[in-house]
Amino acid sequence: MKFNESFIPGLGNSAAVQSIVKAKAEQVAAAARASAPVDTGDYRDSIHVEVVHTPFRVVAKVVADSDHAMLVESKHGTLSRALRAAGNG
Fold first, then answer.
1. How many whole angstroms separate alpha carbon 80 and alpha carbon 31?
2. pTM surpassing 0.85?
3. What is the largest distance, in Å, between two alpha-carbon atoms of the chain?
4. What's the whole-number mean pLDDT along residues 14-43?
5. How many domains does the chain have?
6. Cα-flanking dihedrals φ and ψ of residue 86, to 5°?
7. Buried b / exposed e across 26-37, counting CB within 10 Å, b at 16+?
8. pLDDT digits (tens, 9 = 90+) for 71-85
9. Disulfide: which of 13, 14, 49, 70 matches 25 by Cβ 3.0-4.6 Å?
């Protein structure tokens, strides 16, 4: 048996897989924004999806990058809860 070494990188970075991964991350981001604590709205509004391509797959990260995101996340766990609610954590 000969393994087709080019198949896996092609599959992991295919448009179909990229679409599925990004859609799931967008669901998590939407849940995080919906449950985010709001004082000024900066934290909630900073929640977004970043897509990164590696040699073998595409990765989508849900990120909150306001200046105080780490503080809010440490107190409320908004991103953690959204990820668990989506069945991924």
1. 11
2. no
3. 60
4. 93
5. 1
6. -80, -5
7. ebbbebbbeebe
8. 999 999 999 999 998
9. 49
Average pLDDT of the segment spanning 3-15: 75
CA distances, 24 to each of 3, 4, 6, 39, 69 (Å) = 30, 29, 26, 27, 22
Question: Using N-to-C axis directions, what is the helix angle for 69-76 and 78-85, rounded to 10°?
Answer: 60
In a domain, 87, yes or no: no
Beta-bridge mates of residue 60 = 51
pLDDT at 65: 93
Print the domain residue range for 17.
7-82
| Residue 58 counted as domain residue | yes
- All residues at 6 or more sequence positions from 67 whose CB lies less than 8 Å from its CB, including other chains: 42
Residue with tokens 């990058």: 65
In a domain, 40, yes or no: yes
Mean of pLDDT values over 8-17: 80
